[in-house]
Amino acid sequence: MSTLQFIDQQRSAHPIQQLCQVLGVVPSRCYAWRLAQAAGAGETSEPGWETEMVAVFDHHKRRYGTRRLRVELRKKGCRVGRQALRTGLRRHGRQALQPKSFVPRTTDSTHGRRCAPNLLLDQPKPTQANRVWVSDITYLPLASGAWAYLCAFQDLCTKHVVGWQVRADMPEALVTSALQRALLAQRPAPGLIVHSDRGGQYVGNAYKALLHAAQAELSHSRRGECYDNAQAENRRNFFVLVVPPQNRGARSPRLARLCRPGRRAGQRRLLF
Fold first, then answer.
1. Listing from the earlier edge strand, what are the strands of the sheet with 217-220?
2. pTM (2 decimals)?
3. Confidence grade of residue 41 (pLDDT, cut at 50, 70, 90)
4. Which of 72, 139, 164, 178 could form a disulfide with 151 if both were Cys (CB 3.0 to 4.6 A apart)?
């Protein structure tokens, strides 16, 4: 029992001033404590909106956050802000579900197949076109909520996309189709280096057969070195070079933000 509680308990038998003087307590502190206790006792009853909040929250099985809870409570005549809802949920031990956002994984290097060495290590930047191509697979968020996958081959000298393909999935045909378009469009001379990451689509037999027929050399990133393929992993460049400006507005807002050209990207030539 605290000193203030003892004074409050004995105030019926002794004057408060005398009790405070004996116990060394300032009387004003005792009176302030009694006012606070009285105010707290008056607030013990739960507001009506909290009862409605708990009922709505439990009815929707923790799927409603403060935004939707506020809308539902206003329909019931309870006007309350989101901060008060957060405090009320915390007071009642309620927490909404927080689903993790899904991001497609475009590189799977656990295929167990043999990869080629990195032929671009310590090599100067090419000064002629069709000497080095780099490739990567990226994902496109669609307005419907689904995903599409883009494979593109980019010339390391000119920065032009020489071949590309879009599909709803990521088989080896996604890569081989883009490579076939690039080879037919450019007709590169023998000795071309085609570099990519260690993804399973880039180590298939059909992909290697196309490179062998074109007398091109295969190059892969080193294990655990994500920067080896940094030239091809710039999604912003791929969007600016591949997606036509008149079609960018028809896609999702997220894709539209990625397609928004910057100072340098806006000056590049669109090939498709």
1. 161-167, 147-155, 132-141, 193-196, 217-220
2. 0.52
3. low
4. 178
